[in-house]
Specification:
Elements: E1 8-11, E2 14-17, E3 31-33, E4 37-40, E5 46-48
Antiparallel strand pairs: 1-2, 3-4, 4-5
Cofactor: Zn(2+)
Family: Belongs to the eukaryotic ribosomal protein eS31 family.
Domain Small ribosomal subunit protein eS31: 4-46
Length: 51
């Protein structure tokens, strides 16, 4: 189980998301990291990671 705090990186006064946002669902919907790909749990959009 991934904690929500693991999805963000804090650098000084900036907060960055580690996982990309789904291009179909817009801001606020994270894509899950599945090792070799990112997948959206809401719409099913999948992107393969580049090596």
């Amino acid at each position: 189980m991934v904690k929500k705090s693991d999805l963000y990186k804090v650098d000084g006064d900036k907060i960055e998301r580690k996982n990309p946002v789904c291009p179909r669902c817009s801001d606020g919907v994270f894509m899950a990291d599945h090792g070799n790909r990112y997948a959206c749990g809401k719409c099913g959009y999948t992107e393969m990671k580049k090596d």
